[in-house]
Design brief:
Length: about 200
Amino acid sequence: MGWLIALGIVALLLVLPLGVSALYDSEGPRVSILAGPVRIPVYPAKKKDKKARPKKEKKKSDSKAKPAQQSKKETKGGSLTDFMPLVRLVLDFMGDFRRKLRVNVLEVNLVLAGSDPCDLAINYGKANAALGNLWPRLEELFVIQKRDVKIQCDFEADKTLVTARLDLTITLARVFSVGARYGYRAIKELKKILNKRKGGATT
């Protein structure tokens, strides 16, 4: 019975979404860690009462002089032919990993300030154009489940204000899946390099 409970806990952890939530508003930036429905604030950190620490006695300086540090040896570069497959592996991993991330919530509320209607209209157009160029790139990098973007104008406001929220999560199952796939590829590439060095091959 115990192993069934343990198996159920492992399965739950694998599908539990983990991530980070970032919020910016008039109170400044705030960051929380997400573990399923649980939200754990990490920034800004809670202020702790500073307690007076006892002063440490200064250690007497050793009479023996420390030996001079040896100069570092110059390192030589490795084979470019061996290096490029590793670069491609890292780039593929980063691209695949990004697609495994989930943007659960993406909210932006931009309030443009300005008393001149002409200037405000120009700024409004620029803001819309900037967001229009940004969305395709974001959707290429991430899977966005919910988004809410608003651009408003306030003729009485003194300065432009923005409120933003981003909830980004990934499950452990996805992390292990990507890690196992690219870990296997990395081992294969490293074995190739090791076999070349054992055989005395140079490129």
